[in-house]
Amino acid sequence: MNASRVTASVPDTSGRAWAYATASAFAGGLLLGVLTNLAQGWLPGAWNQIANSGAVWSVAAFAAGALLALQVSLPAAAVAGLFAESGLVVGYYGYAEVARDGMGSLLAPLVWLGMAFIAGPLFGVAGSWWRGINPRHRVIGFAALAGVFGMEAIHYAWALHYAPQARACLAVLVIVPLLTGRTHRERALTLLTAIPFSLLAYLIFYKLILTTFLG
Question: What does the pLDDT read at residue 2?
Fold first, then answer.
């Protein structure tokens, strides 16, 4: 059993694996960036905010890290998260420039690209940790993702006063860890960890970064 565990957990650290991880993550992020731009026109009323939320965009980096967790090293998963988030920014604003009325000022794309260099590696690692065998890492990894949905719930409830959207994000915060946790203890710890993560993410992202750079 020990031998099989070691064999299964050895990642591919070759240059080919790094190239595959970054290329596939960027392509997926690029596609999702275009889709989130389109979804803003598809979703009614204030629901179009969901498509352009930091929580939804963080899912791309998390998914990249989770899908590649058993194939590449942790640094490669972090880089894949970075490329996924960067692809999102390029896809979203590229489509806005080509197919809509233009992206406008370069400030917003540059701020979001800067955020991609922070959030991308963090959520790439979080996704990789969630697929791993370390219980503590699994809890922290998924609590980070659940926490950004908690962050959005706070923003929708207190800043924008969009109650349905706040409830939707809160439901993701609560339900998804319950469905994906491997044990009852892991589910409970994930929820408990996600709550302070939500508050911290809200203070850092909305109150510090976006307020400072975008007003």
Answer: 46
